[in-house]
Design a protein that fits this description.
Pfam families: Beta-lactamase2, ORF_12_N. InterPro entries: Beta-lactam/transpept-like, Beta-lactam_cat, Beta-lactam_class-A, ORF_12_N, TAT_signal. Keywords: Signal. The chain is an alpha+beta fold. It folds into 3 domains: about 140 residues, Nuclear Transport Factor 2, Chain: A (Roll), CATH 3.10.450; about 150 residues, DD-peptidase/beta-lactamase superfamily (Beta-lactamase, 3-Layer(aba) Sandwich), CATH 3.40.710; about 130 residues, DD-peptidase/beta-lactamase superfamily (Beta-lactamase, 3-Layer(aba) Sandwich), CATH 3.40.710. The strands form 4 sheets. The protein has a 5-stranded antiparallel β-sheet with strand order 6-5-13-12-11, sandwiched between helices. Helix 3 packs across helix 5, helix 6 runs antiparallel to helix 16 and helix 7 packs across helix 10. The radius of gyration is 21 Å and the shape is globular.
């Protein structure tokens, strides 16, 4: 049972999975298909200690009243609160409310816990929950329900499954030498459209982390330096920092961790502002990107929302793909500051086909992961390794793969993921998956798409 695992897993379970749930709900709202299925029927939760806590979670994410820190502390075990402050959980629960009302549609009881299928009009999530002897929640995991798919038992079957996906998809599995540098090419075990450049969504945050690490190494930045949240730096979810009041101080280390672990957009923009856009653009070449011009100028997340989906930049959106760098910089420079309102953006459309996203091919992502591991091996870059492994994105066998670095990304019509896996025998692999479609609905089933990554890891485990 996941509740019995380490505190670090409990931490990423409640933080990363809850934040991901909100992002999935928003994406599903924006891209729901034309045909609506019959609404499912709610089921009762058991009248047991863990059932009552599951009911509390359901009540909390459905409530019109803001959850207080005191309520969190009354229901969640101290071992979790040591890792995740109650204030942070309050912010995440508030985001969950964007997809309410939620109902429980099925319940499966197991020793020490429950698995509950939660349904709203915009998303379905599987909740796994357990409690300790004091009847406090000590395990909480939200994830997409298992996809209706047959796992691949061979590389041939894996390729067939990827080819059958509704979105245009590339997937690579690369064995990398233990001493490979950022430009080092490894053995491609799987190569499905591996030469295609495709949108990344939030995987671009790897380059921001690289720029931060190099600034620390240069002595122009410290992991302990503070950043200040303001209305002009506040972005939209995913994340939790956008819910913090102006004037809130966030350390560089905390912002970098949130940027990778829960893909916090406000944390990302704070870091870009601190190191400078040009430093991140330079990092593309430093970390082995084959064509940095594809991402120049380098967008902040606020700018992606405004340019790609906002009502005031339709002309700039239409001309962006053909615009020169100076023209693009002028557009970004004209964007207003202030609070962004989510309901003012049309997330039912896609923007990546107009060049509005961040772009790379699988070799770029392999190089980026290797470059970051090199930075992590330096005294000043030591935090990078832990930051990258805070959230593995999927469930892997930790005895087979004791270390996993992950960054994924999504936007309307875009779903992508990248993993560096270190096997217990010392072998290293990088798995990349990039899906894109003009129909956002084609990429909303993350379990169907990323199930192929889980299959690949199992095949690597069985080598």
């Amino acid at each position: 049972m996941r509740a019995q695992r380490s505190g670090s897993l409990r931490r990423r379970s409640i933080v990363a999975a809850l934040a991901t749930a909100v992002a999935l709900a928003v994406s599903a709202c924006a891209s729901s298909g034309p045909e609506a299925s019959a609404a499912p029927t709610a089921v009762a939760l058991p009248d047991t200690a863990v059932g009552k806590k599951a009911q509390w979670v359901l009540y909390t994410i459905n409530s019109d009243e803001e959850t207080t820190e005191a309520e969190i502390e009354q229901n969640i075990a101290p071992v979790m609160l040591e890792q995740v402050p109650a204030s942070q959980i309050v912010a995440i629960v508030g985001q969950m409310g964007d997809a309410k009302p939620w109902i429980a549609t099925s319940v499966t009881e197991a020793t020490g816990g429950l698995t509950v299928l939660l349904h709203s009009s915009s998303a379905e999530l599987q909740m796994q929950i357990s409690v300790d002897e004091q009847q406090l929640i000590n395990g909480l995991l939200f994830q997409q329900p298992p996809a209706d798919r047959t796992p691949a038992a061979s590389w041939k079957e894996l390729k067939k499954n990827v080819a059958a996906l509704p979105a245009d998809t590339s997937m690579t599995v690369t064995r990398v030498d233990a001493e490979a540098d950022a430009a080092g090419a490894g053995e491609r075990i799987v190569d499905i459209a591996g030469d295609e450049t495709k949108p990344l969504g939030s995987i671009f945050k790897l380059y921001v982390l690289g720029a931060v690490a190099d600034a620390v190494a240069a002595g122009t930045l410290s992991w302990d330096d503070n950043l200040i949240i303001s209305d002009d730096t506040r972005s939209l979810p995913s994340g939790v920092l956008q819910d913090q009041p102006s004037g809130t101080l966030v350390s560089v280390r905390e912002a970098a961790t949130k940027m990778i672990e829960i893909s916090d957009n406000t944390a990302t923009d704070l870091l870009i502002d601190r190191v400078g856009r040009e430093a991140v653009e330079a990092q593309l070449a430093v970390m082995g990107h084959h064509d940095p011009a594809l991402n120049t100028p380098f967008l902040k997340t606020r700018e992606l929302f405004q340019l790609g989906f906002g009502p005031d930049f339709g002309d700039a959106r239409a001309s962006w793909a053909d615009a020169g760098v100076d023209q693009r910089r002028a557009v970004l420079g004209s964007m207003p500051g202030g609070v962004l309102e989510l309901n003012s953006f049309d997330l039912s459309t896609t923007a990546w086909q107009q060049g509005i996203d961040w772009f790379a091919d699988p070799a770029d992502l392999v190089a980026a992961h290797l470059a970051l591991q090199q930075k992590a091996a330096t005294p000043t870059g030591e935090p990078v390794r832990g930051i990258l492994s805070a959230n593995p994105g999927l469930q892997f066998d930790s005895e087979v793969f004791p270390y996993i670095a992950f960054k994924g990304g999504s936007a309307p019509g875009v779903l992508a993921g990248s993993w560096l896996l270190e096997r217990a025998d010392g072998e290293r692999f990088v798995i990349t998956m990039q899906s894109s479609s003009l129909d956002p609905a084609d990429v909303t089933d993350t379990a169907l798409i990323f199930g192929n990554v889980t299959d690949a890891a199992k095949l690597l485990a069985d080598e």
